[in-house]
Amino acid sequence: MPSEKSATTASGAGGPADPSESSPLVRIRSLLPGLARAEQRVAKVVLDEPAAVAHRSITEVADAAGTSETTVTRFCKAIGVSGYPELRIALAADTARSAARSDRDLGGDITPSDDLRQVVAKVAFADARAVEETAEQLDAEVLGRVVDAVARAGRVDVYGVGASAFVASDLQQKLHRIGRVCFAWSDTHIALTSAAVLQPGDVAIGISHTGATVDTVEPLRVAAERGATTVALTNFPRSPISEVADHVLTTAARETTFRSGAMASRIAQLTVIDCLFIGVAQRHLDTARAALAATYDAVGGHRLGVRPDGRRRPRETGR
């Protein structure tokens, strides 16, 4: 297991993009699976009625969760706040921000009775919120270290299955287009054999919304054992994949009845991937520009004779 880690955590190690704007509800959702059972009951009370909890006493919250005031305090520490008073202040501020965005009606789950206009509005809002909340809590320092590692790497392996496989493939194609050696694996056996031949200086990235997908965790573990720099991209920083990662990048995707992990996580993951890719491209700006131009021209003959602005391309002669 890697001896040193960098991660976006509830305590703010490394620091999110803007700690003052980071929602306590985002942190609670991301840390929920790793909390003790009694603390999870407190979390449910807070997540179900954050605005109400902002005005309740610690005794009232403890009673609602069927636990003790000590457990509520322990829950506060677990999510990175000093105590219940700070949690109330954070919840009140978050409620005010939500009200300012007028997102209460759109923030709910999609129901079977919603018409298509409501579905479109809720999906668009949920996607925009996933991007916004992911950006708010993303640790720029950790992202910078990952960018540096990928920019220097002789080879990059990316592991992901299910919906995460599409995100892994997106990163592979982006890096490949700027001349970086990158492979994306969704087959477990191939991922394991590929990880087994990595070496120090290489980078392995595991993408898993839950952080508990064995098909992704195991190749990342093998890569770590081979001395490669390992990176986890997950919604839950205290999940198994974090244990085998040198660096942990977190998303902030919410799951609902109709928006399972396959839908809710993809937009947030792609946001982080885009930031990573641009950071790497900046490190190799001249070669990246040349490579992008070359790859664009390479497929030019497979485009119809219409430019992106709708005007027809000039007829080429001599071909």
Radius of gyration, taken over Cα atoms and rounded to an integer in Å: 22 Å
What percent strand?
5-15%
Known CATH architecture of the largest domain = 3-Layer(aba) Sandwich
| Distance linking N and C termini | 57 Å
CATH class of the largest domain: Alpha Beta
Kindly state the number of beta strands: 6
* Largest sheet properties: 6 strands, parallel
Tell me the CATH topology of the largest domain: Rossmann fold
What is the topology, as strand order, of the major beta sheet?
1-6-5-4-2-3
SS-based class: alpha/beta
Topology as H/E string? EHHHHHHHHEHEHEHEEHH
CATH homologous superfamily caption of the largest domain = Glucose-6-phosphate isomerase like protein, domain 1
How many individual domains? 2
Overall shape: it is: globular
Helicity level, as a percent range? 40-55%
Mean pLDDT: 86
How many alpha or pi helices? Answer: 13
Low-confidence stretches: 8-15
